[in-house]
Design goal:
The protein is of the alpha/beta class. It has eight helices and eleven strands. The chain has a single domain, classed as Ribonuclease Z/Hydroxyacylglutathione hydrolase-like (Metallo-beta-lactamase, Chain A, 4-Layer Sandwich), CATH 3.60.15. Bound molecules: zinc ion (ZN) (2 copies). The site of one zinc ion (ZN) has 5 residues, from loops. The site of one zinc ion has 7 residues, from helix 2.
Length: about 240
């Protein structure tokens, strides 16, 4: 599904677009090479590969899969996608080991409970805040946005002056709060990360679940920021 000139949706159970358990999986056309953002929950990889082909691309040109955070629904396709495309897996250094061992932070037991299972693989590129990665003509800037998990990242990609931001589960485009209280969750870090995202001033928002926003992003984010800073009782009752 083509979302912008350079950004495509190639997986996402919320759209019935790949398999149950998949987060949104985005493909970025880097000009002769491709990058992915997240890899889903594992079962959707064959469908994602088909979707990449249907978009007119060659899966063997996927160079990097950025992992926004270590939850199983974002890392489950790492091994199968690496095997199929030869891509490198890039994740924040704080979650490298968790992803490689399917540790507690990945919530892998939840995956097993919901009928998903997958093999882990190595993280090839260890990321940290402000790291800039170039893939052909595309430039990706890593922004460390912990809170949902300790090594959560957002990825900024500029497309002809328009700022695309991939945020994983740190922000939604509908002002909806994400999954709080999982192992590794930090309320204060999450609040700071929303401020950090606001500072980036993105034009388009590509979250890990739900719909994306191609305009009016700052308004969505301000609603979210307001909720994070409201008394907790309001947050709980106003989720929507
Ligand atoms: Zn998550
Ligand atoms: Zn998720």
């Amino acid at each position: 599904m083509k979302l912008t000139d350079k950004v495509f949706l190639v997986g996402g159970s919320g759209y019935g677009y790949s398999a149950p358990g998949d987060c949104n999986v985005y493909l970025v056309d880097c000009g002769g090479a491709l990058s992915l953002v997240d890899t889903g929950g594992g079962r959707g990889v064959p469908m994602m590969l088909d979707n990449i082909k249907r978009m007119g691309f060659d899966p063997s040109t996927v160079e990097v899969a950025f992992i926004t955070h270590c939850h199983y629904d974002h890392i489950g396709g790492n091994r199968a996608l690496k095997d199929a495309t030869g891509c490198k897996i890039a994740a924040h250094k704080a979650e490298k080991e968790e992803i490689e061992t399917l540790g507690e932070l990945t919530l892998y037991q939840q995956a097993l409970d919901s009928g998903l299972s997958f093999e882990p693989t190595s993280v090839d590129i260890s990321l940290s805040d402000e790291r800039v990665l170039e893939v052909r003509e595309a430039v990706f800037r890593v922004i460390h946005t912990p809170g949902h998990t300790p090594g959560g990242i957002s990825i900024l990609h500029e497309e002809e002056g328009v700022r695309n931001l991939f945020v994983g589960d740190t922000a939604s485009a509908q002002g909806r709060l994400g999954y709080v209280n999982a192992i590794g969750y930090s309320h204060d870090d999450w609040k700071s990360s929303i401020k950090k995202i606001l500072d980036v001033n993105p034009d388009r928002l590509f979250p890990g679940h739900g719909t994306f926003a191609l305009s009016g992003v700052m308004d969505c984010l301000k609603v979210l920021d307001g909720k994070w800073n409201a008394p907790w009782i309001n947050i709980v009752t106003e989720v929507g």
